[in-house]
Amino acid sequence: MSWRPDSPVELANGQLVCKRHGMIRCESCWVDYSFSTPDAAGTGYEYNDMDDDDFTIVIPREFHPPRLADTPDSLFSQRVLPGMARPRFVRKTDKNQVIFWTDGACLNNGKANPSAGGGFVFSTPNVKHDGKYHGIHFRLENEGPNGNIEAQTSNRAELRAVIAALEFKDRSPEGWKSLVIATDSEYVVHGATDWITKWMDNNWKRSSGDAVKNRDLWELLMDNISRYEELGIEILFWKIPRELNKLADQKAKEGAALPAIDEWNPVYVCDCCAPNV
After folding, report:
1. DSSP classification of residue 44
2. What angle do CA 99, 33, 275 make, to 5 degrees?
3. What sequence ranges are listed for the domain RNase H type-1 (predicted)?
């Protein structure tokens, strides 16, 4: 059975909190509604604060393993560090670095009635849950974070998966200083570490003059990366072969098969049925 957090309650100022405990970030309900914090004027939600005078945009770096033959399994192992609720995949030579796998999928991509979803894996198997890796899978919403209707595509699902991995829980108390996002998406890795600087310099236009697709998600992704930087956590992107991303790929396909969701909704299905992950 899938576990879902309680529906949030909206306070008078627009802030969302968990229904059971009235908390913005609740470890018991495994929710983080800090995304809904009203702006200073109390006029609405700030999904994109990249224009704030005191906010610095951080362009992430690409992760390069020491050797070409290195894989996530050769560099990271299962460990439990102080402050972590569950084992993480921690760098063997650096306890301050962990790795998450992310992926997106789209059924009938480019055809009629496409159905996209995302997923990510962040923890190790637990014998109480049939040895499944701890991960999240979810259906891509029809609406973006700004409320506009968007297409269901694999590229959009890939981006959404990374955003979900960064947003679904406050990870700063776990103590690590570097998070490697492992994905087989060239679109995500090169877009986040290289192409986006050109897009922003060109007012979100490609060299062809066409508008950059998925701008809403790119801006939200950069917003999250920059906020992690403010917490002292660096986000790195590692382009891995598709065969090394099977766990997240399976989560993404499960997400794409879920019923359609209209509104932007950061509530994800947990496959391990445990709130404290």
Report:
1. S
2. 60
3. 94-257
* One-character DSSP codes across 228-257: HHHTT-EEEEEE--GGG-HHHHHHHHHHHT
Sketch the domain layout of the chain as residue ranges: 1-46, 47-270
Tokens in use for 45? 């939600």
128 burial (CB, 10 Å; 0-12 / 13-18 / 19+) is: exposed
CATH class of 47-270: alpha beta
Nearest CA to 172 out of 60, 83, 58, 276 is that of 83
Residue 236 · residue 61 · CB < 8 Å: yes
pLDDT grade for 277, boundaries at 50, 70 and 90: very low
Residues 135 and 125: their CA atoms lie apart, in Å, by: 10
Q: Name residue, tokens 């610095």.
A: 56
DSSP state of 212: P
| Other Cβ atoms within 10 Å of 175 Cβ, number | 14
Q: What is the pLDDT of residues 181-220, one digit of tens each?
A: 999 999 999 999 999 999 999 999 998 999 999 999 999 9
DSSP at 36: G
Region for 149 from its dihedrals, namely left if φ exceeds 0, alpha if ψ lies in -120 to 50, beta otherwise = beta
Percent helix, strand, coil in the chain, to 5, is 25, 25, 50
Kindly give the pairing relationship between strand 178-183 and strand 234-239.
parallel
